[in-house]
Design brief:
It is built from five helices and seven strands, in the order βββαβααβαββα. With 134 residues, the protein is an alpha+beta fold. The strands form two sheets. Strands 5-4-6-7 form a four-stranded mixed β-sheet, with helices on both faces.
């Protein structure tokens, strides 16, 4: 089993070339200020599909461009931090990988359980952005 190559610091988690917030409150605040939806990515270090996302999806420039339309929030499902556990429970995220798009005030817009190849992921992002703007 391969591990997802993830680096972290105090405020961010880095998946592939993508920088994700790790603080739920901060991500929602930025989303409200910028009028953007939040893309929540549930992952773990032991998830092989998370590694595939890093290598095959997040590394795409087209995906990177589309992700700019969202505030990115990474939640490690192995975390025992209270905020991480709360957001896992709220959106029923009990296995990796999963993506959930939410409004800045926390309403669920869409959910993508499991792994999606790059083109399917791009379609998910586009549809989620359209739903958010309605």
């Amino acid at each position: 089993m391969g591990a997802a190559p993830v680096k972290s610091d105090d405020a961010y988690s880095y998946h592939g070339d993508t920088e994700w917030h790790t603080n739920v409150t901060e991500a929602k605040k930025i989303a409200a200020e910028q009028d953007k939806p939040v893309l929540v990515y549930y992952w773990t270090t032991w998830c092989t599909y998370c590694k595939d996302y890093n290598e095959k999806v997040y590394s795409s420039q087209a995906v990177q461009n589309r992700l700019d339309e969202f505030v990115l929030l990474a939640v490690n499902l192995d975390s025992d931090q209270e905020a991480a556990v709360r957001i896992q429970n709220r959106y029923d995220a009990d296995y990796p990988p999963q993506h959930v798009v939410i409004t800045p005030d926390g309403q669920q817009v869409s959910k993508l359980p499991g792994y999606a190849p790059k083109d399917d992921f791009m379609t998910y992002l586009q549809r989620s952005q359209q739903r958010y703007q309605q």
